[in-house]
Structures are given as structure tokens and as C-alpha cells.
Specification:
Elements lengths: L1 E2 L2 E9 L3 H11 L3 E2 L5 H6 L3 E2 L3 H21 L14 E3 L1 H6 L2 H36 L17 E8 L5 H10 L3 E8 L2 E9 L3 H10 L3 E2 L9 H29 L3 H21 L3 E2 L3 E9 L3 H9 L4 E5 L11 E2 L8 H7 L1 E2 L7 H15 L3 H17 L4 H24 L6 H9 L30 H29 L3 H21 L3 H18 L7 H11 L2 H10 L2 H21 L6 H38 L6 E3 L12 E3 L2
Parallel strand pairs: 5-16
Antiparallel strand pairs: 1-13, 2-11, 2-12, 3-11, 4-10, 6-8, 6-9, 7-8, 10-11, 14-15
Helix pairs in contact: 1-9, 1-10, 3-5, 3-9, 5-8, 5-9, 12-14, 12-22, 13-14, 16-17, 16-20, 16-21, 17-18, 18-19, 21-22
């Protein structure tokens, strides 16, 4: 409905007091701290940007560590989690003063040690298991696994492919002077040790390679395979016992996860404060805070600053300032502000279209996706989620908006007779065997087919629905022109409003009357056209340019006609949802009134209608938004505003209480 009036805040404080002041302003949730960008002022007053990089990196690491600890401890605590969990309400300053923050830091430190050690145990266990697996096939080898021969002999310990012909290979190896000691076999191969004189090692090695022999790698291992297996088993058992103890300790530390979550918000708030401080400049001893505050919150901010060691000044924005935008709307329209934000915020001091847009969005969304069944699911699901779940303010507003749009779907679903498409008619006709002549016809308009529509059935009367859609579009466009008319009048351009907007209204009125009173409509339309030709060239200096520009003014009719045709997408979206639902109902009732038919109907209805709901919800959201952004805003909107973003404390898990 409007844009909040902003005021400039300048705070001057000693550097030692800066942390306390910034955190206090963050808790007020209404102070948008600005980044200082005036280079000339910095040079003139010898100001330097406050450097916080080292502290920021330290806090980022700390916050990441605490987040990892919470993720590790949380699964071991039985409590409401996620969107079902409420925030803890406490005074975080008292939490720190009582030493609870230090205790939580010890929990974090010990948890990180446990997590690090458990990760190391996992790595050691994997390495030890690999050693055990590699040594187990050689348990029949009585020499140390690292043994590679004596001064005159060489030992080849390894594995041959499982399909190796041992008799043939053994004869060839014997001729080269090698003696085989078969150790065993499994699906992976044949394990063996070959001994030969060192002068024959090259020939033996080449022959073994030709058979696919892979030499085992146990360099430096002084244990036999049996000893290594026993040692590995003992080590794995010890590691498992250590890991079990650490796991139990981790579970006991989970009892302190609430305190760790409070610590997270304390450290994350500290990080947020550091990020805010990095926007500021200072002299050798004095820091300067430049910020924006809503005019309605001035008293709250000044009352808080009066209790701190600082000097401050609150002033009106001057002509060069570009204040941030804080939208101020009623309870209904507030939920549609994020749709406006997806496009662009209005300029400061200009018109906020959220309220008017929210009404048209509500109506157009409902017409596009007019269905009682789908609307009930959307409305009940979204509004129940807002009521029952612990959601962020932004997500609450989004779901509330969709809940309202679901109500609109129900209203227009009743008017257009859509209850999961034509589900009631399909069930009565196919599953209940009711003759078509006995099916209900609730339409207040003449209809040859059974229908539950009170106004019109888009599937039976698509042309009527198209006319209805274009009529809604015409109202939407004229409303946009009306907003522009009011804006021009408020800016003191009354004649511009009459000539540039009013002239077209006369022309449109003539077009409308042509369908009702043709003779009157003709003259009204001609009067509107003459009005446009005579006034649209009023800025030109000579008569010929005035006439030329006036004639070009009529060309805007093409743009208006193009915009109006864009509203045919209401017809397209409405028909697509209805036709898909009709197909789902047809497929679901094909089994007839049998046990199998009813089972098939339930299965097809659930899958088909859920998919139809998902697809058309997305399409309706996109196209309803587009009609606002392009057709409606194009008539008057002055965008380019920067959203008001107050500095905030972290409240992921807690809410600070004074």
C-alpha cells in the first residue's frame, strides 16, 4: 500500500565501543547499516576502512566447526527437529556471563576431537583390514613376509592366475633352477613362493611374468603371515573398542547440544557483526556508522543509543540519497510482497503496487487453476504448515500466499464446476451407472451437457471462457492505467493524465458500447480517436508535427491489443489443468464398477491428480506472475529500489530475550 519513510542515522563512537553498538543495533532488527562509499570524504577526513579479515576467517572456521558438532550430536537426542522444533528463548548475554558459553566451547572442542579420532580410526581400520586381507593367503609361509632371499638365493612370493597349469609351469620353472612352494589357492589365484639361485633370478622372474605371476609387496615386514594376521586382528579389535567408547562419549555429549546451539547463534552473531563492521570507516580512534532506519522506529533506535557511549544524528534524506525500500502493507498483501521482490522493488517515494497486485494475483491465480479439489489441498496444506511448523518469516509469507490462492481456486472451481476435473461426473457415469440424462446440471446458463458449473464450464464453452479471460485482462489493464492516472495527478500533471490516459478510456468505452449500442459506441469511439490525435502531439512546436505525433498515438492501440491477447494464457492454463484432470478421470474409471476397477481408480486418481497438481501449480504461478510483471506493471511501475535489509543477529536456534 505504501513505502515506509526512511531516515538517515549517523553514529560516532570510540572504536572500543563499536562491537557493543553494532550488536545492539542488530538486535533492534530495524537498522540497515550502509557501506561507506564516499572516497573524497575518506581522503579529506583521513578515514580508513575498518579491517576485520583475520577475525572474519577465524569466526567462519568457528561457526563451521560448531555447525559440524551440532550435526554430529543432534541424531543422538530425542526431541522435535527441523520445522517442528521451536527456538529457545533466552538472554544470550546472561548465557555468556554464567559461563555456559565456555562450557559449550569445551563440548565443541571435545566433540571435534572425538570426530577427528573416529575418522582416524576409520582410516586405520581400513588400512589394517587391507593388511590382514593381503597377508591371510600366505599363512602357510613360515618365513617373514618381507623375506626376499639370502646372500645367494632369491625368494619370489606372490600369486598366479587361478587357471594356471601348475604341472607345466612347475616343470619349466624347475628347468630354470626354481623350487616351488605352493601355499594355497582361492578364487583370486594360486599363492606360492619360488626360490632360486640369484644368478637365475632374471630368468625365473621373466618366466613367472609370462604366467601372469604378481609378486606380493611386503617390503620391510618382519612378521610372518600368521603373526601379521593375529596382530591385525588384535589391532582391529582394539580400534573397534576405542571407537565404541568414543561413540558412547559422543552420545553423552549430545545432552549438551542445546547449549551448543546457543553458542552457534552467539558466534554467528559475532560473525554478522564483523561483516557489518567491515562496511564502516574510522579515524585513529573514532568509528562512523551510517545507516537507514524506518521513521516509525526512530524512537526505539534513539532510546537504545542513549544508553550507549556514542553520539548520533538522525536526519531526513536529501536529494542525493537513495534510501532502501521497506514495503508497508496490510496482513493480506504482505504475503505477496515476495512476488513483487522477484521482479524489482519500487523507487523510494513512488507508488507501491503490492496491494492492488495482490488482489489481481489472487483472482487470476484462481481462474487459471480453478478447481475445488486442488484448491482444498493447496489451501489446507499451506495454511496448516504455517500454523503447525516452525518456519522462517519468508517461508511463512510464501505458504500463506499460496494458501490464499488455494481459496481462490476453490471459489472459481465452484463457479466453473471443477472438482478434480470432472471426477464426480465420471464416477456417477461410469462407476455408478447413472444415465447421462439423470446427471446433474447446475449451470445458471443454458447447457446441453451435464455440468457442476454454476457460471460456465471451460471445457464445454471454451469461447465463453476466452471472453471471460479477456474481460478480466481488460479490467487488469485499465486498473494499471488508473494507477498511472493517479500517479500523474499526484505529481501535478493532471492534464497529462487526462490526455495520455483519459483519451484512451474514451476510445475503449466506445469499443465497449459498439457491442451494446452500436450507434452510440461508434461516435464515442470516434470522439476518443479525435481526442488522442489532437492531444498526443501537444509537445511539438509546429502543427504538422503535432498532427503526426497525434496519429502515432493511435498506434498504441496495437500495444494495448497485444497486451490484452496475453490474457488468453488464462484460457490456456485453465483448459490444460481441466483436460489433464479429465484424462486422469477417464483412465481411472476404465476398470468399471468392480473390485479391481475401484482399486485401479484409487491408484490412478492419486498418481494422476498429484502430478497434475504439481505441474499446473508451477505453471499457474509463473504465468500469473508474468501477467503482473509485463502487462500490469508496464502501465505505471517505476522500479529500481533497493530492499531494506536490516542488520540482524543470528537466530537459527534462539531468540534473544532482554
Amino acid at each position: 500500500m505504501s513505502i515506509s519513510k526512511m531516515k538517515k542515522l549517523a553514529v560516532f563512537a570510540h572504536k572500543d565501543e563499536l562491537d557493543a553498538i553494532v550488536k545492539r543495533l542488530m538486535r533492534l532488527r530495524c537498522v540497515d547499516i550502509s557501506t561507506h562509499t564516499d572516497r573524497d570524504e575518506e581522503e579529506e577526513l583521513e578515514l580508513e576502512r575498518i579491517s576485520c579479515d583475520a577475525r572474519r576467517l577465524e569466526l567462519e572456521s568457528t561457526v563451521a566447526d560448531i555447525d559440524a558438532v551440532i550435526a554430529a550430536l543432534d541424531p543422538h537426542v530425542k526431541r522435535a527437529k527441523g520445522m517442528l522444533a521451536g527456538k529457545k528463548k533466552l538472554n544470550t548475554d546472561e548465557f555468556v556471563q554464567k559461563g555456559n558459553a565456555d562450557k559449550a566451547r569445551k563440548v565443541v572442542s571435545r566433540t571435534l576431537q572425538i570426530l577427528g579420532r573416529r575418522e582416524a580410526i576409520k582410516t586405520e581400520s581400513a588400512e589394517t583390514t587391507a593388511e590382514l586381507v593381503s597377508a591371510r593367503p600366505y599363512t602357510a609361509f613360515d618365513l617373514p613376509l618381507g623375506f626376499d632371499g639370502t646372500e645367494t638365493t632369491e625368494c619370489f612370493l606372490g600369486v598366479l592366475p587361478a587357471a594356471t597349469d601348475l604341472e607345466a609351469s612347475g616343470k619349466e620353472l624347475f628347468r630354470t633352477g626354481a623350487i616351488a612352494n605352493l601355499l594355497g589357492n582361492d578364487k583370486n589365484g594360486i599363492y606360492a613362493a619360488y626360490f632360486c639361485h640369484r644368478k637365475d633370478s632374471s630368468a625365473v622372474s621373466a618366466l613367472l611374468s609370462s604366467y601372469g605371476f604378481l609378486r606380493a609387496s611386503f617390503q620391510g615386514v618382519e612378521l610372518t603371515a600368521k603373526e601379521l594376521v593375529r596382530s591385525s586382528q588384535r589391532k582391529l579389535k582394539a580400534l573397534a573398542e576405542e571407537d565404541a567408547k568414543l561413540f558412547e562419549e559422543l552420545k553423552s555429549l549430545a545432552n549438551y547440544v542445546d547449549a551448543v546451539e546457543v553458542l552457534y547463534d552467539i558466534e554467528a552473531t559475532e560473525l554478522a557483526a564483523i561483516n557489518q563492521k567491515s562496511k564502516l570507516v574510522a579515524t585513529e580512534s573514532v568509528a562512523i556508522i551510517s545507516a537507514w532506519i524506518p521513521a516509525g522506529r526512530e524512537a526505539v533506535v534513539t532510546a537504545a543509543l542513549d544508553k550507549l557511549e556514542c553520539a548520533y544524528d538522525v536526519s531526513e534524506p536529501d536529494g542525493e540519497d537513495v534510501p532502501p525500500i521497506l514495503l508497508k502493507n496490510n496482513g493480506f498483501a504482505t504475503n505477496f510482497e515476495w512476488v513483487l521482490g522477484m521482479y524489482s522493488y519500487p523507487q523510494y517515494g513512488r507508488f507501491d503496487p503490492t496491494f492492488i497486485m495482490s488482489i489481481f494475483y489472487f483472482v487470476i491465480f484462481g481462474i487459471m487453476f480453478a478447481d475445488v479439489g486442488y484448491g482444498l489441498i493447496v489451501a489446507l496444506g499451506c495454511l496448516a504448515a504455517v500454523k503447525l511448523l516452525k518456519l522462517s518469516d519468508g517461508l511463512k509469507r510464501s505458504l500463506t500466499m499460496f494458501g490464499y490462492c488455494g481459496i481462490s481456486c476453490i471459489v472459481f472451481g465452484v463457479l466453473f464446476g471443477s472438482y478434480f476435473g470432472d471426477m464426480p461426473i465420471a464416477i456417477m457415469k461410469t462407476m455408478m451407472g447413472i444415465p447421462e440424462s439423470e446427471l446433474p446440471n447446475l449451470s445458471i446458463l443454458p447447457s446441453d451437457s451435464p455440468t457442476l458449473a454454476l457460471l460456465l464450464d471451460p471445457l464445454q464453452d471454451p469461447m465463453g471462457f476466452l471472453i471471460f479471460s479477456l474481460a478480466v485482462g481488460a479490467i487488469h489493464l485499465i486498473a494499471g492505467m488508473a494507477v498511472k492516472f493517479v500517479i500523474l495527478c499526484k505529481d501535478g500533471h493532471v492534464w497529462d493524465a487526462i490526455f495520455d490516459i483519459g483519451a484512451y478510456w474514451v476510445l475503449f468505452a466506445g469499443f465497449g458500447l459498439l457491442a451494446i449500442v452500436p450507434e452510440v459506441g461508434k461516435w464515442v469511439a470516434i470522439a476518443g480517436a479525435v481526442f488522442i490525435v489532437l492531444t498526443h502531439g501537444r509537445d511539438a512546436k509546429n502543427i504538422f508535427m503535432k498532427l503526426a505525433k497525434g496519429l502515432l498515438g493511435l498506434y498504441d492501440l496495437i500495444n494495448y491489443g497485444s497486451d490484452l491477447l496475453s490474457y488468453s494464457r488464462i484460457l490456456a492454463l485453465g483448459l490444460s489443468a481441466g483436460i489433464i484432470a479429465q484424462v486422469v478421470n477417464l483412465l481411472g474409471t476404465m476398470g468399471g464398477p468392480t473390485v479391481g476397477g475401484f482399486i485401479m481408480m484409487a491408484f490412478v486418481f492419486v498418481i494422476g491428480h498429484v502430478l497434475n497438481l504439481a505441474i499446473n501449480m508451477l505453471g499457474t504461478f509463473v504465468h500469473a506472475s508474468r501477467l503482473q510483471y509485463i502487462e500490469f506493471f508496464g502501465k505505471f511501475y517505476e522500479d529500481g529500489g533497493t530492499p531494506f535489509e536490516p542488520a540482524l543477529s543470528s537466530e537459527k536456534y534462539t531468540e534473544h530475550q532482554e
